[in-house]
Amino acid sequence: MLTGAGISAESGVPTFRDAQTGLWAKFRPEDLATPEAFNRDPKRIWEWYEWRRELVRGVEPNAGHRALVELANAVPRLTLVTQNVDGLHQRTGSTGVIEYHGNILRDRCSAEGTIARRSSLSITGLPECARCGELLRPDVVWFGESIPRHAALEAGAAAADCDVFLSIGTASVVYPAAGLAESAQRSGATIIEVNTESTALTPLADFSLRGPSGEILPQLLQALRG
Ligand code: APR
Q: What is the pTM of this model?
């Protein structure tokens, strides 16, 4: 199963591509979520991420997140891959979540690449690595960057070996995440999409369940339990 920004929308986390309220509404993604943008203006990028961190810390998981915790207990095996960096699946109690695009609440050293603690002394006023003093960055995957190796491998293997692939609340336009459903379909899996709108995946999906995931997923769970 793959989740995207749509599953957290009902918690109050804006999606990325909503023209009015989306997280990119005022900016082009290439101006913010790239290593080049960070190198050019780390202060601006940190301000944007601190704002998003506050937002994420202030919201609560919704019925869609909760239904997935229960779904994991109702089926023999469930692999939850998320493109979301908000950590809401984990906060709800989902285990073994594959964070395909990282986690916004973690810091990573921009030089060493390792998860890092902040130095209490900062020369630049920006978060610096307690070990080497270089700038920290959010532990997320930016445009043009690779998916963390273990996440790519685990998600790829699960997609190629599943009976049912659920795609929930994602526009299915950002690769390689969007390729997971295609890989599952090539391996003969049934593709089920849960989304308020049709997406790039809709033509490939065996079933398209239209509506908010906070309503559809509890219904799906109930139907499964009979
Ligand atoms: N329930 C289900 N789906 C919803 C809901 C909802 N309540 N609200 C919105 N959606 C759907 C939208 O119709 C859209 O298809 O969620 C999708 C959100 O799409 P995007 O904003 O593009 O988010 P996502 O697909 O997760 O983006 C993928 O792109 O910007 C990068 O790294 C970022 O992880 C992100 C990736």
A: 0.95
In which domain, by residue range, is 88 found? 2-12+61-101+146-225
For 77, other C-beta atoms within 10 Å of its C-beta total 9
- Whether the Cβ atoms of residue 109 and residue 132 lie closer than 8 Å to each other: yes
Annotated active-site residue 101? The verdict is: yes
Q: Which residues line ligand 1 (CB under 6 A)?
A: 4-6, 9-10, 15-17, 22, 29, 83, 101, 169-171, 174, 194-197, 199, 212-213
Does residue 152 lie within any of the structural domains?
A: yes
CATH number at residue 150: 3.40.50.1220
**pLDDT, tens digit, 9 for 90 and up, residues 118-152:** 888 777 789 999 999 999 999 999 999 999 999 99
CA 104 to centroid of ligand 1, rounded, Å: 16
Please report the sign of the dihedral spanned by the C-alpha atoms of residue 6, residue 200, residue 19, residue 27.
positive
Kindly state the average pLDDT of the residues 75-88.
97
Give distance in angstroms: CA of 137 to centre of ligand 1. Answer: 23
